TrEMBL record:
The chain crosses the membrane at residues 33-51, 63-81, 115-137. It catalyses: H2O(in) = H2O(out); glycerol(in) = glycerol(out). This is Aquaporin-9. Signal peptide: none annotated. GO terms for cellular component: basolateral plasma membrane. Gene3D superfamilies: Glycerol uptake facilitator protein. Its main location: membrane. PANTHER family: AQUAPORIN OR AQUAGLYCEROPORIN RELATED, AQUAPORIN-9. It comes from the Eukaryota. It is a multi-pass membrane protein.
Length: 167
């Protein structure tokens, strides 16, 4: 309230609604914003699939959260300037509903030329495209295991490479 002179603003120099939800930069068109959200989520899903695919070398066991955190930092740093890089509908829709009810008004849905639907639909489309790209370009090219070869589960052999095995 002190920053904006007692007003809850959505756009402008003293806008505070962007603290909660994502809004596009003034130079960004709706088409480019949609592409931005699709590409960010597409890369996120492709790399997450690669990390957790048991037929890939992957990352050492237990370090998956750190690698995914670094991945999100890299994607948000490179694509976040345009429109906040939601990459998840829940990252934008719930805070937008909160700001609408908390005093900013329902103009939060019309700001940025009705931008509100892009962080909801874009990540859904990007997730499907990212999953398809991973399956069609990488996963189907993994060699099939030999059906005649039977393995017994071993307690000595971990499912993924552990840090101690690599070092």
């Amino acid at each position: 309230m002190a920053f904006a002179g007692g007003k809850l603003l959505i756009v402008g120099e003293n806008a505070t609604a962007h603290i909660f939800a994502t809004y596009p930069a003034p130079y960004l068109s709706l088409t480019n914003a949609f592409a931005d959200q699709v590409v960010a989520t597409m890369f996120l899903l492709m790399i997450v699939f690669a990390i957790f695919d048991s037929r890939n070398l992957g990352v050492p066991k237990g370090l998956e959260p750190i690698v995914i955190g670094l991945l999100i930092i890299a994607i948000a740093s490179s694509l976040g300037l345009n429109s906040g890089c939601a990459m998840n509908p829940a990252r934008d829709l719930s805070p937008r509903l909160f700001t609408a009810l908390a005093g900013w008004g329902f103009e939060v849905f019309t700001a940025g030329n009705n931008f509100w639907w892009i962080p909801v639909v874009g990540p859904l489309v990007g997730a499907v495209i990212g999953g398809l790209i991973y399956v069609l370009v990488i996963e189907i090219h993994h060699p099939d295991p030999d059906p005649d070869f039977e393995t017994e589960p071993s307690e000595d052999k971990p499912d993924k490479y552990e840090l101690s095995v690599i070092m």
